Each structure stands twice: as C-alpha cells, then as structure tokens.
C-alpha cells in the first residue's frame, strides 16, 4: 500500500515517537469529542478510507474507531495546524466517542480555576 503523500508528510512535525495529537470534533456542532494519536500511516489510512484510524500507544497497534464497538467516526475534514504538530479531525460520530460510553471524553466536569484580576 502506498504511503502518505510526500507533500503532506513534509508538513508534519512529529514527536520523538513519530506521532501527532489528533483533536476530534463533531463536524456540525463543533463539540470536542476526544483526543487520539496518529502517525503518518494512520493519517494515510484515515485520508484514504474516510474512517478515523489512530495509533494506540498502550497497545502499540493501529485501531479504526468503532471497529469493535460500532461507534464509528466518518471523517469529513482533516486539518493540520500552523506548526504542523497537531491534527484536527472533523467527524460524523456514531454513538459515544469515549471508551467510557459517554458522548465525549470531555464531559467529566470543569476544573477549578484561579480567577485573575484586571490590571
């Protein structure tokens, strides 16, 4: 299977482990669903199949979101940030995005914050 387009690969700024964080967002509402990791091959698979494919750091293998759970992500858009070190995937999420069974991985409540004062 051919790899990632060299012109795209040249724009990536990978971690020492060869990865990029991928922020995943519901395409129509803007809701942030999850964060995952991709390498060049996962990005290539995502771009060519339209299914979100990630690299599991804990299992050291590729995984297609929803392959076992049925909670698939259909990729609508993939964007690279200005530094080339973070991806944004806009997806159509089927069912919950989080492995805990919730819609988003970011619904566990707000953290307390320190309120600043205006100078």
From TrEMBL:
Q: How is the cofactor bound?
A: Binds 1 Mg(2+) ion per subunit. Binds 1 zinc ion per subunit.
**PANTHER family annotated for this entry?**
HISTIDINE BIOSYNTHESIS BIFUNCTIONAL PROTEIN, PHOSPHORIBOSYL-AMP CYCLOHYDROLASE
The Phosphoribosyl-AMP cyclohydrolase domain covers which part of the protein?
Answer: 34-106
The cofactor(s) it depends on are: Mg(2+); Zn(2+)
What EC number is given for this enzyme?
3.5.4.19
Q: Which organism is it from?
A: Jiangella ureilytica
**Database matches in InterPro entries:** PRA-CH (IPR026660), PRib_AMP_CycHydrolase_dom (IPR002496), PRib_AMP_CycHydrolase_sf (IPR038019)
Q: Which Gene3D superfamilies match?
A: Phosphoribosyl-AMP cyclohydrolase
Which terms in the Gene Ontology molecular function aspect does this entry carry? magnesium ion binding; phosphoribosyl-AMP cyclohydrolase activity; phosphoribosyl-ATP diphosphatase activity; zinc ion binding
Q: Where in the cell is it found?
A: Cytoplasm
Tell me what this protein is called.
Phosphoribosyl-AMP cyclohydrolase
Q: How does it assemble?
A: Homodimer.
- Enzyme class name: hydrolase
Q: In which pathway does it act?
A: Amino-acid biosynthesis; L-histidine biosynthesis; L-histidine from 5-phospho-alpha-D-ribose 1-diphosphate: step 2/9; Amino-acid biosynthesis; L-histidine biosynthesis; L-histidine from 5-phospho-alpha-D-ribose 1-diphosphate: step 3/9
Q: Which terms does the UniProt entry file under GO BP?
A: L-histidine biosynthetic process
